[in-house]
């Protein structure tokens, strides 16, 4: 294939940074101080007050542009569909939180009411999320175990076990909301960026494994107490397999049938989603059928099947969180807050890009913080979003959070008037629905091979996070993942892939010497590139790689030269015949008139031609390099330690008669070098050049001038 390329020709002087500034006037900007930023932040006027209100209440922004005729019908249909799915997921995910199923309906209702006003995403469905439910459930079972005494908390006095568990779950959720609200007010929404897609994928995959194992007791109809702490998953599996012969066959058959049917219909929904106006609500259909069959055949008494049982009718009065639970669960509540926001924000970002509107991370933190605090006051547990619900809300025509509000109203209707219809629902059905909805998260195991082939450090993060979360628990696993992620960042910056650059013949472009054939490398010139910041942790690595690239250690050469100079002084004092007049002229370049031996042996010439022929008993490493060019185009910052190490390295090269040049240095770094008194008699500002080609041309020109000729025109440059 022939590619037609345009050409350009530029004729300009060879610039150093100093000469460029002489020819082009630079604007010196005044940088604002922290006090200036504080004053600007605290300054208020009518425009800023209006923007603050619109920012805090995003509903005002999208309600002003709401197209009733075009969007309302889609929002209603979407809200009804999403509401039915939210009810089923709320019932199922409440099992993960170790709570009675009816409290899952509260999570489908209360958090959505406040997010409707405060959230910036128009498409996410706010409610229960399996990973958060499991993390809350871990705290619940730790403080209120199924077997044994609960934790010594004053607020538990006079409460049943279910009431104690509800108090713990709501208190943890309230504390989670406080953390999210505080982060939003302090404008630290950026913290979620430290959770990479790889880390979140490994973490959610491990959570899916935990969720699946936790639901085996419902699917098999076994009695397995909740277990917490490291290796809890192994101990749970042990207890399941010890009782495997006691499996309730009715529960197992129902679960298998539910999982197979739901899986097949979900696959059909995905395959024919372009033709279906609304995905088939198979979870709702199977739940209704299971309720009817269970009630008609009296599964509870005939087959000893555990059912949902008494549902809470209506809503209860709000409760205050328990401070003692705060103290017991603060360590777990913070990662729950981070994970809940990270998942919701990543899903919201996908749909905001798809539908071309912006979301605000800090406002999302505030919205979820207030929503969780409000919901916890009415006994709901941790809320975020689930990808399946959000996908349904968007694909079924939802345009705004009016769809979310309608879905909350559907949950309210079921809670207030229709909850009794769900009482005969077998718990194994809910467990089966939970497991079959894990397909998306479990399929993330496929990323292991992809990451292994593409990026080994990312593979380490994924596998380490997943194994850590599976074996040590979700909270510790998240910490392990963050540690591994930070280690990979340190590894990449501490050991960057340095390279030697050469000129691509016929161009002013410079590329890695190992990557191209048609190259030109001027004799005596070495171009070295480091593609990372230079700081205290990698300055020694930088110096080692630089020495490796040039082929000699300047400090060792300098020591050898000092030693040789002492020997030469000794030979001259002895008037040794090994040093001829011709040898003296080659060794100490001087004017013809001053060709005699130096009269003062303590004042030998500073400039010595070390590449000349030396006396037989004197050996000094030969240095054929005359110019070293450092490409700083990828260096984003220098710290003080690195600056000292860099200055030492540059001086070592300068003292062995190698001209050093630094190219494409960031203006901020140059300012810092000036402010830190980096420059002196040996390290000059004239070393800095705007481009590699400028530096190479200058280096060759200067070398030829030193030799007494000008032959750059004879080179390929």
UniProtKB/TrEMBL annotation:
It comes from the Eukaryota. GO terms for biological process: transmembrane transport. The chain crosses the membrane at residues 72-96, 102-119, 126-145, 165-192, 240-264, 276-297, 333-353, 365-382, 402-422, 459-487. Its main location: membrane. It is a multi-pass membrane protein. The keyword Cell membrane does not apply. SUPFAM superfamilies: SpoIIaa-like (SSF52091). CDD domains: STAS_SulP_like_sulfate_transporter. Residues 515-699 form the STAS domain. InterPro entries: SLC26A/SulP_dom (IPR011547), SLC26A/SulP_fam (IPR001902), STAS_dom (IPR002645), STAS_dom_sf (IPR036513). This is STAS domain-containing protein. It comes from Champsocephalus esox.
